[in-house]
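Anyone up for a design puzzle?
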């Protein structure tokens, strides 16, 4: 009963609508009734009718208590029937349900029914598994639709632990009944030991479930054959969302959750659904583009971006999220953001300064508690924001000119150098970056050259094939595929820029969206989901760039009239065009060698080793398994009592348990001598020949029965019998080799006989009797 109350309380804790606190009450009442009916002497049919009668009374009674605008119960039931009827009609016609009463009634009936069934099945039959399975599924569904509860995972963990403990208890009780019937002496600590092992197994499973999601940083693309399953699930989920439509919690619409890991992925289809609208306090500065940042990442490894920052701190409404004096020439603009879906991570452009509600922020450094952090990397809010809610954020927006960016220089702070210059494959990327920028030496000109190169030489594609396992996805994108979406464009620019010694990072969130004519209101849709590079300039801070060819190019003011008249610096003027540059680098990349050329293996050898090492690990695993099997076989031959099946059987018997048949057979076989195992083969051969051997016959009588009907088998059968009797009944040593060769001859004759081949001059044409 406690198990299902856990599931009911999990549903009641969502806060999706009013009166959900009645669900745990219904589960408790249903469980008590089920236990009472189970302990009674009523037949199954009578018990079923009693349960139906109580259900018919209890559910309308509880729902009628929710109708407060009527006095008599006749009026309450009439209103209840009408509301449920119209809500059911809306659901069956695939329209959003407008009344939450149908959801409350469905959950009351569900948890009342499974609790009543579980109590009855447990006390009457000791098998409450189907109701418990349904309760577990309800927890999983709640976790899917309510991301905050799903991330905690405490309800599912508690449910698993209690379910395994119940399974252990029922198993012990079933065996205890058999022990009492058979007058079997049982160790007093048996129940304690069994519970201890069950609890340990439950905890291990829970820890594995909690950490399993962290073993992979992204969802692996499903095979083509499973697309119908995904589409069916989406269709079912959309239909069920009609039932959830009147609820107010974070379950109606799925939430895009940003985490510390980001996979480059293969692309997904996006919709026209509005995520939020933003109202700015003043028009957008000329040349500025708003990027609604949600999360930033600083470390890249083989297709996975990670945010290595771990400091999360709570901030009160209006408290500085970032030092306001850290960067110069920034304009503070206030944005009022109205969300149209449930949000856990808040979006803000540029550098968020303050926000009008308590939040938890992922920060970089905070030297003193009273000093604002150096920067805020992500902002989360709990509870989640509901559709229609607003939050106001003040951001420091930069609109530097090209002259400002060129004059920024390379005097980067240490905290920037430590985090944002790491490149996993520096040789490959630095060679390409060097060929792109040519003789350019100013960081801004170098970044712009790389941006133009990516925009001009790579084709935008919303989806791409799965990257090969033996190649870094970015190198594959740059030198082989040459098409992709924003994750690949932005990652390529970040790594190329870093290879030149310029700090950069990856940011994700949404592009600017659709501005109104006044450039003060922006409508951001799901299709505007985006990733972009941000490059650090001393004194100015992080500046956005746009290498993705599907996005509008960022055009910044030049800053001086002289520069407006001069053409921009040309990247690598020696190269005729960037396409020829790419082809030239492809030829170099194929023959790439290490910088030192002598200290490390050449890339072909490295690639060969990378392809070979999984097979080496597999071979080592197979060899280890073979070694373990050989050692086990040696142990069985020398000391059968130390073998695994004998040990398991003995442990079960010592605790008064009944060993399963397969284990008894295995243990008995291990106890046999080598010659006795050979005799088992002889009995099987006799069975193939349909020998008339009877139970209780000696070995000699079995051989004579076989030879009587199949005289051409007399020679090998007699030789085998001679060696068998030596081994079993005489002090003389037998020859196992001779016995095995004799059995091979008998097996050969048995197979030919089975397929009706004539094997001996004395054998009949059809040997079947």
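Challenge accepted. My sequence:
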């Amino acid at each position: 009963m406690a198990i299902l109350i856990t599931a009911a309380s999990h549903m009641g804790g969502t806060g999706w609508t009013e009166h959900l606190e009645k669900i745990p009450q219904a589960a408790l009442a249903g469980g008590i009734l089920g236990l009472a009916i189970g302990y009674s002497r009523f037949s199954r049919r009578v018990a079923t009718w009693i349960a139906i009668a109580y259900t018919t009374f209890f559910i309308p009674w509880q729902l009628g208590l929710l109708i407060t605008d009527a006095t008599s119960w006749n009026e309450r039931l009439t209103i209840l029937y009408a509301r449920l009827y119209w809500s059911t009609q809306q659901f069956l016609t695939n329209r959003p349900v407008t009344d939450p009463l149908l959801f409350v009634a469905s959950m009351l009936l569900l948890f009342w029914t499974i609790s009543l069934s579980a109590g009855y099945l447990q006390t009457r039959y000791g098998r409450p598994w189907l109701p418990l399975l349904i309760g577990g599924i309800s927890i999983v569904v709640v976790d899917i639709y309510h991301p905050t509860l799903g991330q905690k995972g405490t309800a599912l963990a508690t449910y698993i632990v209690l379910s395994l403990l119940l399974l252990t208890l029922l198993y012990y009780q079933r065996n205890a009944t058999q022990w009492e019937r058979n007058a079997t002496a049982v160790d007093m600590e048996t129940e304690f030991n069994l519970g201890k092992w069950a609890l340990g197994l439950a905890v291990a499973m829970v820890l594995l479930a909690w950490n399993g999601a962290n073993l992979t940083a992204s969802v692996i693309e499903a095979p083509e054959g499973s697309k119908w399953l995904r589409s069916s699930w989406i269709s079912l989920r959309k239909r069920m969302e009609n039932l959830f439509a009147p609820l107010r919690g974070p379950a109606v619409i799925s939430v895009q959750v940003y985490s510390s890991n980001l996979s480059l992925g293969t692309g997904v289809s996006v919709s026209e659904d509005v995520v939020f609208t933003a109202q700015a306090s003043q028009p957008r500065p000329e040349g500025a583009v708003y990027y609604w940042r949600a999360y930033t990442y600083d470390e890249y490894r083989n297709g996975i971006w990670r945010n290595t920052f771990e400091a999360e701190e709570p901030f009160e409404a209006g408290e500085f999220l970032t030092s306001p004096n850290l960067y110069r020439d920034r304009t503070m603009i206030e944005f009022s953001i109205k969300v149209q879906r449930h949000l856990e991570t808040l979006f803000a452009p540029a550098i968020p300064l303050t926000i009008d509600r308590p939040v938890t922020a992922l920060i970089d450094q905070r030297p003193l508690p009273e000093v604002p952090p150096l920067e805020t990397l992500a902002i989360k809010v709990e509870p989640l924001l509901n559709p229609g809610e607003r939050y106001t954020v003040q951001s420091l927006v930069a609109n530097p000119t090209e002259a400002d960016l060129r004059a920024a220089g390379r005097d980067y702070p240490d905290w920037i150098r430590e985090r944002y210059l790491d490149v996993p494959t520096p040789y490959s990327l630095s060679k390409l970056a060097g060929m792109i920028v040519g003789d350019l030496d100013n960081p801004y000109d170098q970044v712009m050259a790389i941006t133009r190169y990516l925009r001009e030489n790579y084709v935008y594609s919303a989806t791409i094939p799965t990257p090969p396992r033996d190649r870094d996805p970015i190198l594959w994108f740059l030198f082989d595929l040459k098409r992709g979406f924003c994750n690949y464009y932005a990652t390529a620019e970040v790594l190329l820029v870093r290879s030149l010694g310029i700090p950069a990072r990856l940011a994700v969130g949404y592009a600017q969206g659709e501005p109104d004519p006044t450039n003060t209101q922006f409508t951001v849709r799901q299709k505007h989901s985006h990733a972009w590079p941000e490059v650090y300039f001393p004194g100015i801070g992080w500046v956005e760039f746009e290498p993705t060819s599907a996005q509008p190019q960022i055009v910044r003011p030049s800053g001086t009239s002289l520069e407006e008249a001069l053409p921009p610096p040309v990247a690598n003027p020696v190269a005729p065009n960037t396409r020829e540059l790419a082809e030239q680098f492809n030829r170099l990349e194929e023959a790439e060698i290490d910088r030192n050329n002598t200290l490390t293996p050449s890339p072909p050898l490295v690639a060969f080793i990378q392809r070979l090492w999984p097979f080496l690990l597999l071979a080592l695993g197979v060899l280890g398994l073979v070694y373990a099997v050989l050692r086990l076989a040696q142990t069985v031959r020398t000391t059968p009592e130390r073998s695994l099946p004998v040990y398991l059987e003995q442990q079960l018997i010592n605790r008064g348990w009944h060993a399963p048949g397969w284990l008894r057979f295995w243990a008995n076989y291990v106890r046999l001598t080598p010659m006795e195992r050979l005799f088992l083969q002889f009995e099987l051969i006799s069975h193939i020949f349909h020998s008339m051997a009877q139970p209780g016959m000696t070995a000699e009588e079995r051989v004579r029965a076989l030879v009587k009907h199949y005289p051409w088998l007399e020679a090998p059968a007699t030789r085998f019998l001679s060696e068998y009797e030596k081994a079993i009944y005489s002090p003389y040593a037998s020859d196992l080799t001779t016995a095995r060769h004799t059995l091979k001859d008998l097996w050969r004759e048995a197979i030919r006989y089975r397929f009706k081949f004539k094997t001996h001059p004395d054998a009949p044409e059809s040997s079947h009797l």
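A detail worth pointing out: The chain has a mean pLDDT of 79.
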